[in-house]
Amino acid sequence: MSFIGEGSGKDRPVIEMRKSEYTDDKNQNAMSVFSVWNGDNLVFTNLVLKNLGGDGLGLGGNRIRGLSENILIDNLIIDGAKRNGISIVNVKGCTVQNTIIRNTEGSNPQAGIDIETHIGKEQSAIDVLIKDTVFENNKNTGIAIFMLGIEKDLGIKRLNVVIDNVTIRNTGHSAFRIARARDGVWKHGERILIKNSLIENNGRDGFSATRGNNSIFLMTKSKDLPVIVDNTVFKNSDGNPVKVWKRANHEAHTPGGIEFRNNTTIHDTKNRPWLDHTFEKGKDRAPLTDIKGTLTVVSPESRPSMSTPYGTRNVTVRVIKRTPQND
């Protein structure tokens, strides 16, 4: 089944909701423009979705009927969703491309794209590709990946996400938030790959792992689920460019698992560690684990450093220092 908008430019079809009338936050999942459960071979292309009472698109499945499979989202503008631009829950084979997702605000998670595997313990997000897409002015996160319900090894791959040639800018919190991956369940080639992308001017962290304001935010992410950052530029986040944070005692005891490849560069205007490893007060402490590869840090700090107050294990990252005036 295909949903194809005819026309171009100002003549593209617009689907607009009355966002202000959707006040029941308990049922946001049911307020998507398109809600797909256990759907196969679907195409959504050349549409504008505006002022949405919930998600732009909600894609998922359940344990009885299985995953949604083979979904293409191409050339959409999703502007002003209340919950998420797109929610991807229990899906195998989903491509989002040539799309703009902006101004998501109103009801959490408030992400451009929210990938979740935690509603049922047997849910997965397999072969998800996000490419050639722009995320702007989303309230909390550009791309969020939550894994609350993955607690055991089912003998199959549970998560494989590739993010290629995306731009994430002016996000209120983190550009990426990768959260709550537990130890012991990532044994079948699972990974998250971020490549050829630009991350700039985000309100908190560039890459972060829980609540926070970083570019890459890794919240108690297990080292067994690798995050690979390849040929990607991070610029001017308000918080630490990379943050690893443990929030609860039952979550991963091996926080870390990041590899930097091929000209990945962090531009930071502040004199501070490029990576901050921390724990919420009273939580179990564990060393930062398995950080490797090579990256360039453009920073006023004389010796770019990581803040690792609880020690490190298998941290072999090589940092090339450049000063802003030489960049």
Write the layout of secondary structure elements.
Layout: E1 2-4, E2 14-16, E3 34-37, E4 40-52, E5 57-60, E6 68-81, E7 84-89, E8 91-97, E9 100-102, E10 111-116, E11 125-131, E12 134-136, E13 141-146, E14 159-164, E15 167-169, E16 174-179, E17 191-195, E18 198-200, E19 205-208, E20 214-219, E21 227-230, E22 233-235, E23 242-246, E24 256-261, E25 265-267, E26 275-279, E27 288-298, E28 306-307, E29 312-315, E30 318-322
Parallel strand pairs: 1-4, 2-4, 3-5, 4-6, 5-7, 6-8, 6-9, 7-10, 8-11, 9-12, 10-13, 11-14, 12-15, 13-16, 14-17, 15-18, 16-19, 16-20, 17-21, 18-22, 19-20, 20-23, 21-24, 22-25, 23-26, 24-27, 25-27, 26-28, 27-29, 27-30
